[in-house]
Amino acid sequence: MLFKQRLMKGISQNDLAKLCNLNQSTIKDYEIGNLRNEETYNYILSKLK
Length: 49
Known about the structure:
By secondary structure, this protein is an all-alpha fold. It has one domain (about 1-45). The chain contains four helices and no strands. The longest helix is centred in the C-terminal third of the chain and has 10 residues, at about 40-45. The model has no long low-confidence stretch (mean pLDDT about 100). It comes from Anaerosphaera multitolerans.
């Protein structure tokens, strides 16, 4: 879901990471399911709305 939302907004992983004050690798890990902290996941999603 995160990957699709990011692509629909036309935002790169790097740009989203900057917007969320996170590393690009953290965004990648959430997109592929390696990280599962629900609070952080929802925070990232909120930045795409």
